[in-house]
Amino acid sequence: MIITSAPRVSSSVSRLLSGRVIQSTIQLISAVVIARLLTPSEIGLFAVSFAVMLILNGFRGLGVGAYIIQVSTLDTVTIRSAFTIVALMGGILTAIINLSAEYIANLYDNPSMELLLRVLSLNFIIFPFTIMVQSKAAREHDFGWMALMELIAAAFSSVVAIHFAWMGYGAISLAYGAITFNLISTVVCGIRYFKINEYGFAFQK
Q1: Alpha-carbon span 119 to 96, nearest angstrom
Q2: Which H/E stretch holds residue 138?
Q3: Quick one: which of 68, 63, 90 has its CA closest to 79?
Q4: In this predicted structure, what is the pLDDT of residue 203?
Q5: CB-CB contact of 44 with 173 (8 Å)
Q6: Cα–Cα distance, 2 to 34 (Å, whole number)
Q7: Nearest CA to 123 among 73, 182, 35, 50?
Q8: Which positions of the chain have pLDDT values less than 50?
Q9: Which residues are within 8 A (CB) of 190 and not within 5 positions of it... i.e. 6 or more apart?
Q10: Handedness of CA 174, 179, 181, 184 (dihedral sign)
Q11: Among residues 161, 172, 125, which one has the least CA distance to residue 30?
């Protein structure tokens, strides 16, 4: 069981809240700029595509994050078992989206939606790594590092989305931004909490 002093937790939470305020400011400015670069129909296309992804998002974690935070002993076998579960689910959800992307696009009579869904499905591949490192950070009450992670990710994702929108890529610019946010946040958090020897596929006996 992780025991953390109250002053440290209070300081970490304060940094997390401050980071969230700055992050929200960055994302608000980014949204204003992107709203000027994309048409309402392009923004609507992304919103519908993202809504499709949200339907499946509820199945991707399977309570693994909460388990990692609360389990009394977090050893390599436990980490590998948890990773295996979310990785398998991530692969299944990615396959579902890619196999159904064309049909969903035809349903909405918008061919551009197919590529958009396929790009967004990459989040399901990144997610197993994301949930592992972020849950370990939360377990350690390292909210200050998590705040820095989200702040850096928000800055990078905003730059990427604005860049592609400026270049005329349309709705997929927002998808690139979303992928960038998840990728950068995972990498930054992983600087402290990713250990390659802990990862692999296994089921706990």
Answers
A1: 13
A2: helix 122-139
A3: 68
A4: 60
A5: no
A6: 43
A7: 182
A8: 1-3
A9: 129, 133
A10: negative
A11: 161
CA–CA gap between residue 158 and residue 169 (Å, rounded): 15
Angle subtended by helix axes 122-139 and 172-193, to nearest 10? 40
User: For 113, what's the count of Cα atoms within 13 Å in the CB-facing half-sphere?
Assistant: 25
Placement of tokens 């398998």 in the chain: 88
Going by C-beta distance under 8 Å and a sequence separation of 6 or more, which residues neighbour residue 133? 186, 189, 190, 192, 193, 194
Q: Could you give the CA distance from residue 125 to residue 13 in angstroms, rounded to a whole number? A: 29
CA–CA distance, 178 with 172 (Å, rounded to integer): 10
- Enter the tokens of residue 182: 């998840």
Contact 172, 121 (CB under 8 A): no
Which pLDDT score is estimated for 199?
A: 76
Distance from C-alpha of 8 to C-alpha of 102, rounded to nearest angstrom: 50
Instruction: Write down how long the chain is.
Output: 205
Full-model pTM:
0.86
Which tokens is 102 given?
A: 């064309």
